[in-house]
Amino acid sequence: MVRHMKKITIIKPKWILTVNEQFDLLTESALIIENDIIKSILPVAKLDTVEGLDDAETVTLENHILMPGLINTHTHAAMSLLRGIADDLPLMEWLNNHIWPAETKWVDRQFIQDGVQLTVAEMIRGGTTCLNDMYFFPDIMAKTCQQMGMRATTGLIVLDFPTIWAQSADEYLHKAMAVIDEVKEYPLISTALAPHAPYTVSNKPLEKIAMYSSELDIQVHMHIHETEFEIDEAVKNTGQRPLERLDQLNLLNPNLMAVHMTSLNEMEMERVAETGVNIVHCPESNLKLASGFCPVDALQKLNINVSLGTDGAASNNDLDMFGEMRTAALLSKGVSGDASSCNAQQSLRMATINGAKSLGLSDQIGSLEPGKKADVIAVDFSQLNTQPVYDPVAQLVYATNSMQVSHVWINGEKKVSDYQLTDIDAVEIIKIAQQWQTWISE
Ligand SMILES: [Zn+2]
């Protein structure tokens, strides 16, 4: 019989930010990873008393803070190949005249694989260890993430109209079920049903989605109330605001990840709180497309779970969750007129544990606690822009950039060591992205 060796890593940083319920910030402590799991967090002085650490790898990080990997709860990973293709435009003009035509012309299986690779490499290098995606070919997306060692939820897109992925709402749903089966074998991958938006998916498929979500207990990932224009059009066409329509279709429940939600009246906020809907806030994409403002301060006061996403690289244009945390904190203060709104701790929770809750994965990821999956990152504070350090939490949100991420572990695998990707060939990925740029620009 083969006896499998345990792989043990001991990390000794200056601080450990657990993002547990009490938001404990520890010093003089070590975190032990055993295979894919956080085995324990304990005082460095007690390491001598732990047995079985003889063959462990020890990583000492003298100026670093260890924290949970960041969770990006809304993106379109393959769109990184369209980064910068059309900027400084409002949402519908950007979509109708630039993004949808480019997608029709260029998106195929190879585009998805190459775009996802670029995104995953950028994300892991910058401390993001899990992403929630919505795009065509969710099977390729899932496979590419699994192969690269990235944790992901692949969004099973549904639309009323034909695209390269499917011809009708029924075919999108049929393919969604097939992908759910296919990715069951991938330990790093989860699935979510992903109807694009209220204005692109009609009632019949939405009723089916509500039913499948409840039967299979999987999340529903959808753009909702992205702009005031979307709501006005819906009222004109259906006599209802989109959220009211989704409520009647039984979609408002804790399985729903409602992305954007820039325009909400008080009744809607109360309904969201009452039904346990998760809101995904994408501050930089909303700002760039002048879509409006998600009322994060009011939502947090109602104890609604709000997590963070970058959206695709074509409307952000980076996938940097440190930037997103900072923008979320600053924007909330500006919008609410209250400097204490969306404080550093709340921003950090939005980018970690709240994302895990939104994805239905909070028993596995989102905080550094024994028994959870080892998705762990280290941030190096020994740089000009992060000295001195009075408050490590404020430092992470208001002063740090993703290039200060020095180490990343996903599912216990070391993916970044001393700022370098360990097993992903960034040079090759950049070459491929440049090739796509040449083709698309022609
Ligand atoms: Zn989006």
In short:
With 442 residues, the protein is α/β, with parallel strands linked by helices. 37% of the residues lie in helices and 23% in strands.
Structural key phrases:
single chain, 442 residues, alpha/beta, Urease, subunit C, domain 1, TIM Barrel, 9-stranded mixed beta sheet, 8-stranded parallel beta sheet, 23% strand, globular, binds zinc ion
Write the layout of secondary structure elements.
Layout: E1 8-17, E2 25-27, E3 29-34, E4 37-43, E5 57-68, E6 70-75, H1 91-106, H2 109-125, E7 128-133, H3 138-148, E8 151-158, H4 169-182, E9 189-195, H5 203-216, E10 219-224, H6 228-238, H7 242-248, E11 256-260, H8 266-275, E12 278-281, H9 283-288, H10 296-301, E13 306-308, H11 321-336, H12 344-350, H13 353-358, E14 376-380, H14 392-398, E15 405-410, E16 413-417, E17 420-421, H15 426-441
Parallel strand pairs: 1-5, 6-7, 7-8, 8-9, 9-10, 10-11, 11-12, 12-13
Antiparallel strand pairs: 1-2, 1-3, 3-4, 5-14, 14-15, 15-16, 16-17
Bound molecules: zinc ion (ZN).
Zinc ion binds near residues 74, 76, 223, 311 and 312.
Characterise this structure.
It is a single chain. This protein is of the alpha/beta class. The chain has 2 domains: 8-68 and 367-421, Urease, subunit C, domain 1, CATH 2.30.40.10; 70-358, Metal-dependent hydrolases (TIM Barrel), CATH 3.20.20.140. The chain is 37% helix and 23% strand. The protein contains 15 helices and 17 strands. The chain has helices spanning 91-106, 109-125, 138-148, 169-182, 203-216, 228-238, 242-248, 266-275, 283-288, 296-301, 321-336, 344-350, 353-358, 392-398, 426-441, and strands spanning 8-17, 25-27, 29-34, 37-43, 57-68, 70-75, 128-133, 151-158, 189-195, 219-224, 256-260, 278-281, 306-308, 376-380, 405-410, 413-417, 420-421. Strands 1, 2, 3, 4, 5, 14, 15, 16 and 17 form a 9-stranded mixed β-sheet that branches. An 8-stranded parallel β-sheet has the order 6-7-8-9-10-11-12-13. α2 (109-125) crosses α3 (138-148). The protein is globular and about 70 Å long. The mean pLDDT is 97. Bound molecules: zinc ion.
